[in-house]
Amino acid sequence: MKYDISRIESATRLTINSDKLDSKLAPELKSLFINLISDQHSGDLIVNLNSVSFADSSGLSALLLASRLYRDASRKLVLFNLSDRISKLIAISQLSSVFMLAENEDEALSLLK
User: Fold this and answer.
1) CATH number, domain containing residue 82
2) Which residues does 43 contact at the CB level (< 8 Å), separation at least 6?
3) Helix or strand holding residue 16 (H, E)
4) Judging by DSSP bridges, how do beta strands 11-16 and 3-8 pair with one another?
5) What is the per-residue pLDDT across 35-80, written as a single tens digit (0 to 9) for each?
6) β 77-80/100-102 pair status
7) Which CA distances in Å does 5 have to 8, 86, 96, 98, 102?
8) pTM higher than 0.90 for the full model?
9) Domain that holds residue 21
10) What is the number of domains present in the chain?
């Protein structure tokens, strides 16, 4: 499986188990984000990117869709456990102000409060 979904506190945790967040995975993630946001019981979302070492424009597009969906629903989305490469990609793409970013799960959960 390319991702796992679980509940943690009052949020949903999505762990991406793929090393690539690219055009092969992005459509599936976009559908998942739409399904999660439509579930009122899923709450806020934290996304564990620990395994992801590469992302292309379609991968970033999936994350941007999630960010917009959660913002529009007055819910929060936090990305955490980013590799240096993904952190640099987000910075270069000037998306640091779009995403809530955390070093680890505890910090991600604290940003939701």
Assistant:
1) 3.30.750.24
2) 10, 11, 12, 75
3) strand 11-16
4) antiparallel
5) 999 998 899 999 999 999 999 999 999 999 999 999 999 999 999 9
6) parallel
7) 10, 21, 24, 23, 18
8) yes
9) 3-111
10) 1
